[in-house]
Amino acid sequence: MEKFLKLLKERYQLEDEQMSVMLDAFNKVETHKNEFLLLAGNVARKVYLVGEGIIRVFSDDGNQESTRRIAFENEFATSFDSFINQVPSSENIQSLEDSIVYELSYANFRKLNETVPAWRAFYINRIEQAFSLHYGRIEAFQNMTAKERFDALMDNRPQMIARLSNKVLASYLGITQESLSRIKSQA
What we know:
Elements (H helix, E strand, L loop, with lengths): L1 H11 L3 H10 E6 L4 E3 L7 E7 L2 E6 L4 E7 L4 E2 L2 H6 L6 E4 L3 E7 H10 L1 H27 L2 H11 L1 H6 L2 H8 L3 H10 L1
Antiparallel strand pairs: 1-8, 2-7, 3-6, 3-8, 4-5, 4-7
Helix pairs in contact: 2-4, 4-5, 8-9
Protein name: Crp/Fnr family transcriptional regulator
Pfam families: cNMP_binding
Organism: Flagellimonas profundi
């Protein structure tokens, strides 16, 4: 949380009096490995800032999991459509390690958007980055082979390969665990 507040202060001119508003808005929560923070079918009422650990957002149709988002330290995770529109989620949110997260309720999220300019500027920037990231993932799925997607991930987010299980990594890349094992053995 400290690193996040420092970023807001340096890059978005977070004022000292607004810092206490920010600190009051977030609630520190410790989670255990494999603990669910949201189950599909429920409304996402919180967004999570990862202090320590890993959080994933994924769907599960009963036959196959599809990991849509991985959040490491100082990154946010939620079921975005559910959170913004306050509708039931098609996604699950799960801790992949024992983690410390800072949860921000929907009400506090809206309050920060209205009262803390540094938060609002940060939020707009994050939306733009998330759109770009998801657009890039769509492009990768349409135009790259599984090996090319793995290599791009190795270049851009090597911590994913180092810290995620093959099952989760394969579901993020949209390939089977067997294909991932073959690709890793050739790398």
